[in-house]
Amino acid sequence: MGTPPTSVLLPTVRWTDACDDVASQLGPDDELLIVCDNDADPVAARADDLPEGVRLVIAGDPEGCSGKANAIAVGMGAARHDRIVWTDDDFVHPPDWLDSLHADYERHGPVSEVPFFVGRDPLSTLTEPLYAIGGTLGTYQDNKAWGGAVMFERDDIGETAFLAALCQTVSDDGLLSEHLDLTTLRRARLVPVGGSIRESAERHVRFSQIVYRHEPRGMGVILGLAALFTVMGALSPVLVFVLSTLLSVAVYAFFGVRRWTALLGYPAMMLQLPLFLYGLVRRTFVWGGRRYRWRSKYDVEVVE
């Protein structure tokens, strides 16, 4: 029995290698929706020169939600099929990527891969182990969705309620994790992040606030453990250095990632408390060229 026709949603403002990668994997009845903000986005210039099975969707500017959430909501409305895939434009999609998701869905139902963030500037490089432990491993252990590679069907979620909530919040995958029971696969995709210290700081603010808005108790636990680790690291630096490095190396190995940054476990963990506090006290953050003020889970202001 063949796989059902599938709609792949890819929000982006420019055509990247990921667009070509996914387009080449479409079946004869599949579609790839390239979702951008408006006609001024570079990708819109390709509207009349798209590969077979690819459509351009103009989402418009967001009001009361993030640009990503708005793009996904509009894309879901425009998608023709019941089986849905969300993905991003910033990582490599190998030739078997879509087929693998289909095979995994048949075994498990809704599925998601996990991101492994690879730093491109001093701050994002230094915090790589922090995101590997809290982001990659945490997402895997808790069966959370990652918007870069998730497959589900419309009947798997309460679509009407989900889309209504999506248009009032920031995090697409944070919200999806609350509406969808899924299996998170131990298959990590390397996602380059950062490029400048300021950009990496803004990303950390967004990540911190996503955790706080969706799991406030979890953020409390994180802050408590971070404070404990900071004290222990100051009192017994050699012991904590060894333990944190071993933990970081083990997490990298668990996901099949071989990078020297696994050795940065100690400084990354010592930085987590001030970084999380910074992320929580910031009133606004920048994502995708827009500045947001996120007052509560369903109260988002697009500042500029």
TrEMBL record:
Q: Which UniProt keywords apply?
A: Membrane, Transferase, Transmembrane, Transmembrane helix
User: Example GO molecular function term?
Assistant: transferase activity
Which superkingdom, per the lineage? Answer: Archaea
Which residue numbers delimit the Glycosyltransferase 2-like domain?
Answer: 20-130
Keyword Glycoprotein assigned to the entry: answer is no
Q: Give the residue spans that cross the bilayer.
A: 221-254, 260-281
Q: What is this protein called?
A: Glycosyl transferase
